[in-house]
Design goal:
By secondary structure, the chain is an alpha/beta fold. The chain has a single domain, classed as TIM Barrel. The chain is 50% helix and 13% strand. The chain is built from 15 helices and 10 strands. The strands form 2 sheets. Strands 1-2-5-6-7-8-9-10 form an 8-stranded parallel beta sheet, sandwiched between helices. Strands 3-4 form a two-stranded antiparallel sheet. Helix 7 crosses helix 8.
């Protein structure tokens, strides 16, 4: 089977010849390629080469195209810093009051240079691998997380209590940006799209706020992806135990979850309906752990999921840039050893 076929089988709940692997490795790929994050952001051919070389080096089944953590925010006008060798980060906010939402210019993320570079990276990787490897085009923040960058996370938390109607207007604006990015990503030939919504996790807001202010807008992105016949992955960092059932109800085809979420709960809620992507600890295990620890943790995950094909091995979040090569090879080797009869 090809890598693309393995991941498609896992999404469909069918057994492949072995467990598929996809790395959340944009920072590590740049470091291994010998380029800075600035070069990675500004030169699509260099970034695409980094993804291609990493996918071939580790013989993984899919490629996750992720470029930064503030590109979509920058495309709608949020001030963004671009460090030489770190991911971009926002500074300041786009609006000082929710009253300003009505005066924001119409969303047009296609006109942003950073978005266009992200799309070009994806096109190059898709064209290179063809049907050999599965390509997931990440589309940066989901609406709640994007809204927190537009307004400022601290101010938004206050707004949730006092300005409910206007918060929803801001979320609709952020949703339009997300849907536009997904539509553009479709044109690259990517096989799947995804968003991250970590500001909507329980470490930031209570579950009732997730259900009112994040869930409906995540679902709009997912429905938009499905209208384009694209599978969709939702990612939220941290311990998502208390909202995991809601995340499944969004209709996402796959959930990429952190190691802090209870793996037994993940299995119970996801194994029959939703592909689970993860959830090896990217820092404590992959970056700072030994190869023996990586093997132990990967095998534990495989054992829990032994009766379900809906598992794709990955870190639970972005892999640090200086992660040892031997640890990634060990994680992939464990997946390769978990062979199935088709």
């Amino acid at each position: 089977m090809t890598g693309k076929e393995r991941i498609e089988a896992a999404l469909a709940g069918e057994w492949a010849d072995r467990r598929p692997v996809m790395l959340h490795n944009f920072m590590m790929a740049a470091r291994e390629e010998g380029i800075t994050m600035k070069e990675f952001r500004e030169h699509p051919e260099k970034a695409a080469g980094a993804f291609i070389h990493a996918a071939e080096k580790y013989n993984v089944d899919g490629v996750l195209i992720d470029v930064d953590t503030a590109t979509l925010a920058g495309s709608v006008g949020v001030p963004v810093d671009y460090p030489e060798d770190e991911p971009a980060r926002t500074h300041g906010t786009l609006i000082k009051s929710l009253d300003e939402v009505a005066g924001l210019p119409p969303v047009d993320v296609a006109g942003d240079q950073g978005i266009q570079r992200w799309l070009e990276i994806t096109r190059i990787v898709v064209d290179y691998f063809g049907d050999e490897k599965y390509v997931r085009g990440n589309c940066d923040q989901a609406p709640f997380s994007l809204a927190s960058m537009i307004r400022g996370s601290q101010d938004l938390m206050t707004d949730l209590l006092l300005e409910e109607e206007q918060v929803h207007r801001l979320l609709e604006y952020a949703t339009e940006a997300g849907i536009q990015f997904i539509r553009l990503m479709k044109e690259t030939g990517a096989h799947m799209v995804s968003n991250g919504d970590s500001v909507a996790g329980p470490e930031m807001i209570p579950p009732e706020f997730y259900r009112e202010f994040a869930f409906p807008y995540e679902k709009k992105l997912i429905d938009a992806a499905h209208d384009l016949e694209l599978p969709y992955t939702l990612h939220i960092c941290g311990d998502t135990d208390i909202i995991l059932e809601d995340m499944v109800r969004t209709g996402a085809d796959a959930l990429e979850l952190d190691y802090l979420t209870d793996i037994h709960l993940i299995y119970r809620l996801c194994h029959a309906s939703t592909l689970f992507i993860g959830n090896i600890d990217p820092s404590g295990v992959l970056n700072f752990g030994t190869a023996e620890l990586v093997k132990k943790k990967t095998e534990e995950l495989l054992e829990i999921y032994k009766d379900s094909p809906r598992l794709m091995i990955n870190a639970g979040c972005a892999i640090p840039p200086d992660t040892p090569t031997e640890n990634i090879r060990q994680m992939v080797a464990c997946a390769w050893a978990d062979k199935q009869v088709i």
